[in-house]
Amino acid sequence: MALHPDPDPGSPVILPTTELPGPLAEAGWLGRQVDRLGYIFAAGIVIAALVLLLEVFLRYIFNSPTRWAHETTTFLCGIAFIFGGLYCASRNSHIRVVLIYDSLSPYWRRVMDVLISIVSCIASLAFTYAAVLMVRNATFAPSGAFRLERSGSAWNPPTPALVKTFLLVVMILLALQYLVLAWNHFRRLKGDRRG
């Protein structure tokens, strides 16, 4: 919904916008692919809920709980939440304080979009470096031999290493997404200046 002024300037009315939900145009090809992948991770949340429902049924009806349900749901929800940051960046649907941003003219908003994207890219690169260190520790033993960090439970899957590796991939994509956003906002800024 968008706020559009009524012919009477003192009484604004709310009208539906014609924009379809989806990635920003400035997010480019990467943003469109991230938007499509969002359905897979949304399905993961639904699968996690079904696994929990199955676990409750098996535990309390048949008194036969599984060893894998808790870690499976934690893994599915964890990777969905990690992907959610990239998804929100491509759609410009992340939470932000817009007190100053909303008071700016369209030109200065575009300038702020460029600066925010650059700062976010730098922050993403810093988190990428931290993720590289985590992945190195989660995938290699101190001796240098390849081994995946495991959960240590009775089932003992390698989900900690998988989640950390997925976080690294998402952080790389997030930095790239912010770089694409910065470049495309900058291109539109140049177009606004000419127009």
From TrEMBL:
Membrane topology: Multi-pass membrane protein
GO molecular function: transmembrane transporter activity
Pfam families (UniProt xref): DctQ
Top-level taxon of origin: Bacteria
GO CC term (a single one): plasma membrane
Protein location: Cell inner membrane
Membrane-spanning ranges: 39-62, 68-90, 111-132, 165-186
Tripartite ATP-independent periplasmic transporters DctQ component domain span: 49-187
InterPro entries, per the entry: DctQ (IPR055348), TRAP_DctQ (IPR007387)
Entry annotated with the keyword Cell membrane: yes
Family: Belongs to the TRAP transporter small permease family.
Name used for this protein in its record: TRAP transporter small permease protein
